[in-house]
Amino acid sequence: MGRVTVRRPVLRLSAEGARRRQDALAAEEPLELRVDGKALAVTMRTPGHDVELAHGFLLTEGVIGARADVSTARYCDSVDDQGRNTYNVLDVALAPGVEPPDTGVERNFYTTSSCGVCGKAALDAVKLKTRFSPAGDECRVTPETLVTFPDLLREQQRVFESTGGLHAAGIFTADGELLVVREDVGRHNAVDKATGWALLNDRVPLGGTVLMVSGRASFELVQKAAMAGIPVLAAVSAPSSLAAELAQEQGITLIGFLRGTSMNVYTHPERITT
Question: Active-site residue among 76, 115, 118, 139?
Fold first, then answer.
């Protein structure tokens, strides 16, 4: 799996005693994202699918809306003490005519893997306006289809199986077809990688789809769904109050505690057909 996992020695303690063994950990490294040579953000992520991550990040920040809005994306200016490229700095060149990121929504240059909103320069900039509003999306999905998504997502979590330490985000069609799954130490990065894949494959806006996430549904994940035009967001755990508020405002169906054969539908239940 290359740089996505790191093996470290561990002392295993159990009722049977103590023993030393090698354990696989999910890799976590910084990625500095530059736009036209100017540093925009640093996020802690699991290496891999970095170009998708950059495209998804810029999509959900409202900078780009199509693959054609980016001219090139290349690694640069990041070497270790032996002169080898670390692949931890990615520079994205915007296409001619595409406006650079507004300084009002810049991040304070560092975001953790657990929270992509932390570090926003201004709280008012968090509620970004989407160019692909999901409010009028006539997507309909059955409970019988929805309850299959958590297991389908877990089956594709290749790195989670070896480390137990990654979040996952998957995009499904309303009839249950899995389009893409991406993993990362940061739940917001996993979503950015998945939406970045969609953008690079000309699938944005993602009308008629369901975004399934392996953890809780935070405010930022609802925002990212709205920016990509996704009408349904489902999570295996709880949503926050602000996530539900934003989902109601943006016309997104928000589902939490999707486990087994049950779920809680917090907003816009009309898309769930019984």
Answer: 115
Q: How far apart are CA 113 and CA 5, in angstroms?
A: 16
- CB 32 within 8 Å of CB 88: yes
Collect the ranges in the chain with pLDDT lower than 50. Answer: 1-2, 108-109, 121-123
115 is catalytic: yes
pTM (2 d.p.): 0.89
- Encode pLDDT of 115-143 as tens digits: 665 555 444 555 678 999 999 999 999 99
Can you tell me the distance from the alpha carbon of 196 to that of 29, in angstroms, rounded to the nearest whole number?
Answer: 19
- DSSP per-residue codes, the chain: -GGGEEEEEEEEEETTEEEEEEEEEE--EEEEEEETTEEEEEEEE-SS-HHHHHHHHHHHTTS-SSGGGEEEEEE-S-B-TTS-B---EEEEEEPTTPPPPPGGG-B-S-B-SS-SSTTBS-GGGSSPPPSS--TT----B-HHHHTTHHHHHHHT-HHHHHHS--EEEEEEETTS-EEEEEEESSHHHHHHHHHHHHHHTT--S-TTEEEEESS-B-HHHHHHHHHHT--EEEESSPBPHHHHHHHHHHT-EEEEEEETTEEEEEE-GGGB--
